[in-house]
Design a protein that fits this description.
single chain, alpha/beta, Nucleotidyltransferase, domain 5, 2 domains, 13 helices
Length: about 325
């Protein structure tokens, strides 16, 4: 990757302000384990023995990440690299030597990753490295799920909505789309497990898949009430011993209790919520910082691959914001 400074680099070095985008990309560039991620992809990447030599894995991976972080289409990702100095610098591209990969090349690279399940491997690699650095602890998990909307319009080539997406009601509103179910470390707030389903699948149905083997305590909102009685939990030797600290629905307080008892019950619920609230930070990064409020592809699997990259990136960003500078 070309790191030689250009005249543009010297010109931009005299600026009085570094943009938030440039600062974000600098942090991610310093912490992402590029060599390890490239090694994960390399066995599946074309060797270039025939035809035009392939673009380097590192270059394509960086472009793929830019697309995910800024929620861009293939064409927009290509154009943005030409428009943005911060993105060009992150890519390490010198236009005197070569151009940015085109949208079609990015599309093929994304399909390659999806075909071999590589986004999940990258997500798992980050979780493993966080554990090695003493950031991701063991013993406790927070369960939660969030709705990712999908396009409900039928004005498309097939004339129908995505058959893998479904509708669900939350409060008084209906939502069409999918759900991202996550298991978050109760101590650090890093995501260690991720699943995706249609929106109409109840949160508790995926709870068992999000719990680690050595978890001793699990937190969740009122949607996970009765989790300990589920067959997959009750019949499991280890999971049946877990202390499930599930928040009550506010309407479930004992109205007949005296004032002292009521205050104590509310205090206990606040303590549960104070731990459980860590999961909301992860969701905020994915849905607000990365802008992934709406599914960008048709089908659960394709969107799950994007979610693996986004939650892995959220873990990396949280790691950077914690003040750590060493590469994972």
């Amino acid at each position: 990757m070309n790191k030689q400074k250009t005249f543009t680099d010297f010109e931009y070095a005299n600026r009085k302000k570094i943009t938030r985008r440039e600062d974000f990309l600098k942090k991610m560039d310093e912490i992402i384990p590029w060599e390890k991620w490239s090694a994960i992809i390399r066995p599946y990447y074309p060797e270039g023995k025939r035809g035009r030599p392939p673009i380097g894995i590192d270059t394509m991976l960086r472009m793929y990440l830019l697309q995910a972080w800024f929620n861009m289409s293939d064409e927009m990702a290509e154009d943005s690299i030409y428009d943005s100095y911060a993105m060009r610098k992150f890519m390490g591209i010198d236009f005197d030597e070569h151009q940015a990969p085109d949208a079609t090349t990015l599309l093929k690279f994304r399909h390659l990753l999806e075909e071999h399940g590589l986004p999940e491997q990258l997500f798992t690699d980050i979780a493993k490295k966080l554990e090695e650095h003493g950031c991701l602890m063991r013993g406790g998990t927070i369960l939660d799920a969030t709705i990712i909307r999908a396009a409900s319009s039928t004005k498309n080539a097939s004339g129908s909505r995505d058959p893998e997406m479904h509708s669900t009601k939350k409060g008084n509103d209906w939502y069409f789309g999918m759900k991202a179910h996550i298991g978050v470390d109760a101590f650090s707030g890093y995501t260690h497990t991720l699943e995706a389903t249609a929106a109409n699948v109840h949160d508790i149905n995926k709870a068992s898949d999000l719990i680690r083997e050595d978890d001793e305590v699990v937190y969740g909102d009122a949607g996970y009430k009765g989790i300990g009685n589920r067959e997959e939990i009750a019949t499991d030797e280890k999971k049946s011993e877990i202390d499930f600290r599930i928040n009550k629905n506010p309407t479930g307080y004992d109205k007949s209790a005296n004032n002292i008892g009521m205050r104590w019950e509310k205090f206990i619920e606040r303590q549960k919520s104070s731990v459980r609230g860590k999961v909301e930070h992860v969701f905020r990064i994915v849905k607000v910082t990365f802008g992934y409020r709406k599914a960008v592809y048709r089908g659960i699997k394709k969107n799950l691959n994007r979610l693996y990259i986004l939650f892995a990136s959220a873990n990396i960003l949280m790691y950077a914001r914690s003040g750590r500078a060493e590469r994972l």
